[in-house]
């Protein structure tokens, strides 16, 4: 007489076969990955521009309020001391030659913020499109 034992309900999932399959797939991908040609993209080429970007015109504001202009595009140009009217004339002349002439402002750290803003406003009134501020790498 055999007595049947009541079946126990399994509450665990056996994941070992899944892990085996995953490892086999991983090995297959690792072996075949170097053999796959990633494909080459034939990129279009463009011609290089012949124009060289202009060096910016540098306006220096000294601590005593003195304005100096230095044309960095001209190798032999020296800084020239100007007032606001002469600065406008220089800017207009440069804008007539090169409408995209960049201007950088280098102000002494003791110059009032208002003075720098006046020069920037002057640049804006004369349609200077590219205005930047120069700063020195400090040790502070």
UniProtKB/TrEMBL annotation:
GO terms for biological process: cell division; protein transport. It holds the Pfam family ExbD. InterPro entries: ExbD (IPR003400), Tol-Pal_TolR (IPR014168). It comes from the Bacteria. The chain crosses the membrane at residues 12-36. GO terms for cellular component: plasma membrane. Keywords: Cell cycle, Cell division, Cell inner membrane, Cell membrane, Membrane, Protein transport, Transmembrane, Transmembrane helix, Transport. It is found in: Cell membrane. It is a single-pass membrane protein; Single-pass type II membrane protein. GO terms for molecular function: transmembrane transporter activity. Its main location: membrane. Belongs to the ExbD/TolR family. NCBIfam families: tolR. This is TolR-like protein. It comes from Sulfuriferula nivalis. The lineage of its organism: Bacteria, Pseudomonadati, Pseudomonadota, Betaproteobacteria, Nitrosomonadales.
């Amino acid at each position: 007489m055999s007595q049947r034992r009541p079946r126990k309900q399994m509450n665990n999932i056996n994941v070992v076969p899944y892990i085996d399959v995953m490892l086999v797939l991983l090995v297959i991908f690792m072996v075949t990955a170097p053999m796959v040609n990633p494909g080459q993209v034939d990129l279009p080429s463009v011609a290089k521009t012949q124009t060289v970007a202009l060096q910016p015109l540098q306006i220096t504001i000294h601590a005593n309020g003195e304005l100096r202009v230095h044309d960095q595009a001209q190798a032999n140009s020296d800084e020239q001391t100007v007032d606001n009217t002469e600065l406008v004339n220089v800017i207009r002349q440069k804008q007539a030659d090169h409408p995209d002439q960049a201007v950088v402002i280098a102000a002494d750290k003791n110059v009032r913020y208002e003075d720098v803003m006046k020069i920037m406003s002057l640049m804006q009134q004369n349609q200077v499109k590219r205005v930047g501020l120069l700063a020195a790498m400090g040790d502070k």
